[in-house]
Fold this protein.
Amino acid sequence: MRLIDHYRSIVGDQIVEELFLLGKRLQGKTIQNINSTALGGGVAEILSRMIPLMAELGVEVWWDVIHGDNEFFEVTKKIHNALHGVDIGLSHDDLQHFLAVNKKNTQKLQRWGDIVFVHDPQPVALIKKKKKLQNKWLWRCHIDFSRPRPGVWRLLQKFIEKYDTAVFSAPAFARKLKIRQVLVSPSIDPLSDKNKELGQVFIDSVLKRFGIDKEKPIITQISRFDYLKDPVGVIRAYRMVKKYIDCQLVLAGGGATDDPEGAGVLEEVKNAAEGDKDIFVLHLPPDSHLEINALQRSSTVILQKSLREGFGLTVCEALWKEKPVIASAVGGIPLQIAHRYSGILTYTIEGTAYWIKQLIHEPDYAKRLGVNGKQHVKNNFLITRHIQDYLLLFLSLDNLSDVVQLS
Ligand code: UDP
């Protein structure tokens, strides 16, 4: 049985058949994805699941990862933070290094697709190659673009506007651009190790391995150790709850090869958690999908207390498991959670603590939020819908001149 056939029982035959029709229309075209990490974070998570499925649909698609030294990833992390609205200083040398590494990667790449699909700012300057190739280029933004720092935005804009189309995850991220902008939400794969059903024996064994007590409420946040995920804020919210309810906190995550700040943040989190044996700071290797799945499934409440968020796949992952989620109303999270219907949106540490207490005290209500959340994810954020959007987008590139420009 092909991989794609396993999705029929979840989304129905018609959707899978439509995907095959779209795949057929793309035959003869090559699609090249380019990003900056093969491991860690949402982009790698999605591409690793999507590419084999697209190949089964008959689409010739591949994935290249650009290489950079530590200095490059320090600079791109600065750019990433600035796009999330953080005030950073990007020096002339930073910029020169950013451009030099992009240039080096352009020279190193052996082959180019008919459609080049570039993910996020790190490889954005590869676009300089377009002039020579005369192919189609898409720039896919996975990060929160609602309030970028103007200087860094202007710098990126120069590159982005050379692409044929820019793709954003949420309407709030649309910018004034001279090129076409398209909204495509990310997705989760219900059949991946991260999201598939698990047996209770395995789930219990994971809790046991980490020393977590399954009889006490478990509050969990799964995230890379990143300031913008606010893990220290999560600890503060937990401490407010802990005064009233004997509960545990799990902060689980790893790093991404393109994120140099992770080790420092992890250190801060460990310091903040010190002395409390009910806080579990778990630094997980990148292939811990089954463990993360088990932790999510055994949680009483799941948090995503991000200060900024592109989309927040972890929210979808938790909702798919029918878990009540309390998450910040930032970036793409409000697309996933309708407040008090499919989860809880909060703005502060105090609000987060208040809702953790409420949901632990009202398990029936918490369960309803999770059930509604799963339905919402099923309708909107599964990988099959995402593939369909992408295939349509690739097809639309041949008819770009017919598109009315609104900007
Ligand atoms: N993730 C993981 N291991 C970790 C931390 C996160 O596999 O240690 C996964 C998580 O389950 C989710 C993705 O990485 O699938 C994170 O995507 P999200 O959009 O939530 O945030 P990003 O890291 O892209 O900012």
